[in-house]
């Protein structure tokens, strides 16, 4: 079967196979390799233990979801699924950033990947933060169902340190806000750098539905203060001022 491969592909594979186990693994996978001719090089890299993450990165970044799923069906070292790139991103981070939902589901079936659900990149971001910031509801729901997921981890976003909920509130992803609230995250989590709460960011950013979703949660504290001693009532919304202020004052505690 190896002889059916393109000459340059055959040379690439053979030059990187180190022992009989690698050769056997490659032979068993050649039929699958030939089934996806346009992606031969990615498949070959996946079989070579030094290059599997690079192959997955290329497949995801070039929006080749079918290829990424195909790669995951090929045999590869377990370390490939726990490797990270130069920025510290795991394959879960990459799938979350590229909205590769089917790839994410397949990755989460692998125990190696599930062990990486709380892995942080160089910005201290987890895959959940990436999915929440981009508003990818299905990915957020899939990740929050994983045992041991850290719902309240904080990572850097510019000069801020935010949880997944902070990010969803800042960027107006109300469905993600509701999903995170339902998953049991801390709705009053103070940001590490300035103690701003998710509700403060939702109000400041003018996202009415995010504000509404948070205020519906029984544990939300509208009187929580930040590092400057300000509550959400001191935060001036950039948009939808009247509607947001109306929602807030309904929840103002009666003295």
UniProtKB/TrEMBL annotation:
What Pfam families does this protein map onto?
Ank_2
Listed A to Z, the keywords are:
ANK repeat, Repeat
ANK repeat residue intervals: 160-192
Instruction: Please indicate which superkingdom the organism of origin belongs to.
Output: Eukaryota
Gene3D superfamilies per the UniProt record, alphabetical: Ankyrin repeat-containing domain
Keyword presence, Repeat? yes
Q: Which PROSITE patterns match?
A: ANK_REP_REGION (PS50297), ANK_REPEAT (PS50088)
This protein is called what? Answer: F-box domain-containing protein
């Amino acid at each position: 079967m190896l002889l059916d491969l393109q000459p340059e592909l055959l040379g690439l594979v053979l030059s990187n196979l180190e022992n009989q186990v690698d050769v056997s693994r490659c032979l068993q996978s050649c039929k699958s390799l030939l089934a996806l001719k346009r992606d031969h090089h990615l498949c070959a890299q996946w079989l070579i233990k030094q290059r599997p993450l690079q192959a997955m990165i290329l497949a995801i970044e070039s929006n080749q979801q079918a290829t990424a799923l195909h790669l995951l069906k090929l045999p590869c070292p377990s370390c490939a699924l726990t490797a990270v790139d130069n920025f510290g991103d795991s394959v879960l981070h990459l799938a979350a950033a590229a909205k590769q939902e089917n790839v994410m589901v397949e990755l989460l079936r692998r125990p190696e990947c599930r062990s990486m659900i709380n892995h942080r990149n160089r910005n201290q971001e987890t895959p959940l933060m990436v999915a929440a910031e981009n508003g990818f509801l299905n990915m957020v729901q899939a990740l929050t169902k994983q045992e041991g997921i850290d719902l309240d981890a904080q990572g850097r976003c510019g000069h801020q340190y935010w949880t997944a909920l902070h990010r969803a509130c800042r960027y107006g992803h109300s469905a993600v806000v509701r999903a995170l609230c339902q998953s049991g995250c801390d709705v009053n989590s103070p940001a590490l750098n300035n103690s701003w709460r998710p509700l403060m960011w939702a109000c400041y950013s003018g996202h009415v539905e995010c504000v509404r979703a948070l205020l519906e949660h029984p544990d939300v504290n509208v009187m929580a203060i930040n590092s400057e001693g300000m509550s959400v009532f001191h935060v001036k919304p950039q948009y939808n001022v009247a509607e947001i202020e109306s929602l807030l004052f309904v929840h103002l505690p009666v003295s």
